[in-house]
Amino acid sequence: MQNARNFIRAYALAYPSLIDLGARTAINYGVSGVPETFFIDRQGVVRSVDRGGLTTARLSEGLRRIGINWP
């Protein structure tokens, strides 16, 4: 878990990140592979799923879909 914390700090990630011990959340959301990024709005609704390595453009688009303008 320390590696994940270091990564979050190094890249100044401003969005919530989680470690899914036991894979319970992954099972509930239907994660099919790694890496996958789920963009979940404030109401808890999955608005977008990005499968594969996340690029800046794809991150920006996913965030836009949940109402966050970045960068």
UniProtKB/TrEMBL annotation:
Q: Which GO terms describe its molecular function?
A: antioxidant activity; oxidoreductase activity
Look up the domain of life of the source: Bacteria
Q: Which Gene3D superfamilies match?
A: Glutaredoxin
Domain Alkyl hydroperoxide reductase subunit C/ Thiol specific antioxidant: residue ranges:
3-48
Which protein is depicted? Redoxin
